[in-house]
Design goal:
The protein has 192 residues and is mainly α. The chain is 65% helix and 0% strand. The protein is built from nine helices and no strands. Helix 4 packs antiparallel against helix 6 and helix 6 packs parallel to helix 9. The longest helix has 35 residues.
Length: 192
């Protein structure tokens, strides 16, 4: 009789909870990421609130692809901190080597979830390093955040993109409502 294979089953709640727990363990809060979102979008949407930013960060973090990137990046940072990677990767991560771009590539997998507009948002915060990104880039703490700083920037950029897409959709709905009301052939009936 053939040996029965154990069936692999991943619990989505465990993945989500672990993602949030690892962010917390590494000193990253949802409101800090939301502050980056507000920084990126306030100029375009002056009425944007922190609550909206927090909601959009949470929605980005609810995506499995994003959770996978967060789990992978944080664990690589932790392994580098513990000296458990092989050389030269160990030294590249500890020193956040300038020519090592895999951290940005992982971040792109997050940014890409909400379309290409996120790339410009990500590039902007990655260059400026505002808020929590400045702290995560502080090499004097002894912690390795080679992946985490890019992950946090990418989550903020994706949340910003999510907001931009939704605000555009709201404008289009509002615009179509106005057009329907002013259309004499419409007879006051607006499309649903």
């Amino acid at each position: 009789m053939a040996k029965e294979k154990n069936s692999y089953s991943l619990n989505s709640k465990v993945v989500s909870d672990t993602t949030h727990e690892l962010l917390h363990q590494r000193g990253v809060t949802i409101p800090e990421i939301a502050e980056l979102v507000l920084f990126l979008q306030k100029k375009y949407y002056p009425a944007l609130t922190m609550e909206e930013c927090v909601h959009n960060v949470e929605m980005v973090l609810s995506k499995r692809e994003v959770q996978n990137a967060v789990l992978t990046g944080i664990q690589l940072d932790m392994l580098a901190e513990e000296g458990k990677l092989l050389s030269p990767l160990q030294e590249m991560l500890v020193n956040d080597e300038g020519l090592y771009g895999v951290d940005e590539i992982l971040a792109f997998s997050i940014v890409n979830v909400y379309g290409s507009i996120g790339f410009t948002n990500y590039g902007y915060v990655d260059k400026l390093k505002p808020g929590i990104l400045e702290r995560l880039n502080d090499k004097s703490t002894g912690q390795v955040h080679t992946f985490l700083d890019d992950i946090v920037g990418a989550v903020a950029a994706a949340a910003s993109s999510r907001i931009a897409h939704r605000k555009q959709a709201e404008r289009e709905v509002d615009s179509s409502d106005l057009n329907a009301e002013s259309d004499p052939l419409n007879n006051g009936i607006s499309p649903e």
